[in-house]
Amino acid sequence: MPLTDDLRKNMYLLMEGKVFFVVERKYKTQGRQGGLIILKLRNLSNNTIQNITVNAGTKFQEISPETKEMQYLYNDGKSYFFMDTKSFETVEVSGDVVGDYSSFMKEGEKVLVLLFEEKIVSIKRNPTVKLKVVESVDAVKGNTVNAATKTVTLETGYKVNVPLFVKKGDIIVVNTENGTYGGRA
Predict the structure, then answer these.
(1) H or E stretch covering 116
(2) What pTM was computed for the model?
(3) How far apart (Å, rounded) are the C-alpha atoms in residues 22 and 28?
(4) Of 39, 91, 165, 185, which sits with the fewest C-beta atoms within 10 Å of its C-beta?
(5) Which residue segments constitute the domains of the chain, with CATH numbers given?
């Protein structure tokens, strides 16, 4: 169990039976009282961010989740199904674990998952993905009063605002952190 002085960014912690990822760590001094550690943590079970403040010297349990390559098969609305590429075993994962990243996963695509105690705790997100535009309206000349963008539908069903020159069949890069257009592939 490392002390908070040993905590660093990109570390995995086990707190109250849940796995957390350290997004950011700041140290704040309090004069004679000692220091405080301000942690920005991502809860891997529901993909939410939370901030906690603890006294320097507080002990946390560090874990090392296993990374494994799996193939995304399909979803049934509530659960997502992945296949282990080595043993061909199918694993069911709740929608809370996948979160909003489901908008960027294509069926048959290989993804990296994080396992802790043989249970999937998170999907390793790619910062950007390349997706094909399947539905787009034609640009109207002179439609540039506000921002010169239009909404298109991607092959996963996700809708994103893109520049007017993007058309059906184009492959575009989408930023998975904020779901925005990043350019043509």
Answers:
(1) strand 110-116
(2) 0.74
(3) 17
(4) 165
(5) 4-63 (2.30.30.30), 66-123 (2.40.50.140), 128-184 (2.40.50.140)
